[in-house]
Amino acid sequence: MRLTVLPSAHGDCLLLESGKERMLIDGGPDSSFRKRVLPELAKSNDRPIDCVYLSHIDFDHIGGLLVLVDALYAWRVYSYRKDEKGDDVDEPEMPRPPEVLKVWHNAFTAQLGDNAALVASALANTAEILSGLTAADGIPAAIRAYHQDLATHTGHALQLSNRIGAGQLGIEVNPEYGAGLMAFDDEVQQPSLKLGKAKFTLLGPTKTDLKNLSAEWDEWLRDNKTTVRKIQKASRVDADALTSSANDFVAPLEMEARMLVDELSTPSLDARIEDSLGANAKELGLRKKVTPPNLASLMFLVEEGKKKILLTGDGYAGDILAGLQKRKKLDSDGNLHVNVLKVQHHGAEFNMTVDFARRVTADHYVFCGNGYATNPEEIVLDTIVNARPTGKYKFWFNSTPETAAYEEQMTKVRKRVEKLAGESGGRLTFEFIDGEFDVPV
Questions:
Q1: What CA–CA distances, in Å, run from 297 to 31, 73, 182, 300, 354?
Q2: Per-residue pLDDT in tens (0 to 9) along the chain, 441 residues
Q3: Domains of the chain
Q4: Nearest residue to 183 via CA among 84, 35, 56
Q5: What contacts 24+ positions apart, CB below 8 Å, involve 430-433?
Q6: Residue 417: which of 434, 404, 402, 400 has the closest Cα?
Q7: CA 159 to CA 218: how far, in whole Å?
Q8: Residue 377 in contact with residue 356, Cβ under 8 Å?
């Protein structure tokens, strides 16, 4: 196996290769993908990306993948018009990416079933109006921010589903699960998941996590039916086939979102949001402060021979351990050692526990974060080091204090790591890298 960390600012974006096959793991934000990742992928566009694995729909994971599928769509339109119709057309400005053979992704529409279109109509493209609200509107800041994110992420999830769907790119989604949701169910035998010689074991999400995520949307929908109906009348979804002009990219939804403001608040949901987002204390392992989309992250243990990689998305430490235990991947003492751990949620404190740091150890810890939202957190670094009384290991960071958008936090991180490494007697080493790099497996 070969694992490459790609430039992704405060998000996740990795390339996993096994044999002749390769997988793109998340896409980071759109800007880093467009400027730095897509041009590199285009250099090998004669080889397909066998699988794109999207852990969840937060923008620091899905943003780059939207760029990827838009580029694929643009080049398909160009090829159709040039080769099939003989039109005199210019090449797309974006580099031509490799073809994508399949996607692992718990799609928004699949999570909600018949309610997906209703929720989408109500939420997509509302970020701008929500960002303009103030305390004078009577809506607490945490709730305004949450709904703004909800609206934005929903639009992005729909955009991805539209692009890869049968009407456009026609890329298979979760084919091993019959195009259904990928969820851990200990009552059902899990299908075989492979990339080259590497075997993937699905650790999460559970059906319960997906139900909770779906229930959150359904609750919003029930309490905002009037707004939904109004917005639906003002909405238009324009999905063109590949025969359209390259400039006729599908717009996921167009709507008059200002109607949403009148009926934005849902009391019971808002109480949970305020409790979840209102505190700033640095405290480990508070699952209730991990958002439902993060708790619904697709997470895998990857094994090739004796080599192991743990891919965690933005999942929660306790859920990862539960998945490992149910899949019988822990040793007789209830522990697991891997070659590489992609540290969950960029090193956020609520996703890490002391128990996890003690029981899941690694030769290499990968932190994807540039200081945004104060991730990686210094308390997480301390927790991992304190849980490692023996053995050598290395911390890898995908940004440097000099180049990070959040220089102050990354400077604190480097100072803390330097101190921890100095006190470790040579057991802990580290690297801060701005750019693509391979992690030894």
A1: 22, 27, 10, 10, 21
A2: 999 999 999 999 999 999 999 999 999 999 999 999 999 999 999 999 999 999 988 889 999 999 999 999 999 999 988 887 778 889 999 999 999 999 999 876 665 555 555 554 444 434 444 444 455 555 555 555 555 565 566 667 767 887 888 778 999 999 999 988 898 877 777 899 999 999 999 999 988 777 776 666 566 556 555 544 544 444 333 333 333 332 232 222 223 333 333 333 444 444 444 454 444 457 899 888 887 778 889 999 999 999 999 999 999 999 999 999 999 999 999 999 999 999 999 999 999 999 999 999 999 999 999 999 999 999 999 999 999 989 999 999 999 999 999 999 999 999 999 999 999 999 999 999 999 999 999
A3: 2-439 (3.60.15.10)
A4: 56
A5: 430/394, 430/395, 430/396, 430/397, 431/394, 431/395, 431/396, 431/397, 432/397, 432/399, 432/400, 432/401, 433/5, 433/396, 433/397, 433/398, 433/399, 433/400
A6: 400
A7: 20
A8: no
Cβ–Cβ under 8 Å, residues 416 and 379: no
Whole-angstrom Cα distance, residue 221 to residue 114?
A: 12
Matching residue, tokens 């989408």: 120
As a whole number of Å, the CA-based R_g of the chain is 22
Burial class (CB in 10 A: 0-12, 13-18, 19+), 117: middle
At how many degrees (to 10) do helices 207-222 and 267-277 cross?
Answer: 130
Sequence-ordered list of residues with C-beta below 8 angstroms from that of 415, at least 6 positions apart, any chain: none
CB-based contacts of 289, cutoff 8 Å, min separation 6: 276, 277, 279, 350
Beta partners for residue 310, in sequence order: 301, 341
- The DSSP code for 206 is B
CA-nearest of 168, 182, 190 to 53 is: 182
| Residue 421 burial by Cβ neighbours in a 10 Å radius (0-12, 13-18, 19+) | middle
d(CA 199, CA 96): 30
Q: Cis check for the bond before 376: say yes or no (omega within 30 of 0).
A: yes
Tokens 């308390």: give the residue: 379
How far is residue 144's CA from residue 272's CA, in Å, rounded to a whole number? 13
Give the largest Cα separation in the chain, rounded: 68
Q: Is the dihedral of CA 310, 314, 319, 323 positive or negative?
A: negative
- Pick from 359, 433, 361, 423: which is nearest to 400 by CA? 433
In single-letter form, the type of residue at position 318 comes to G
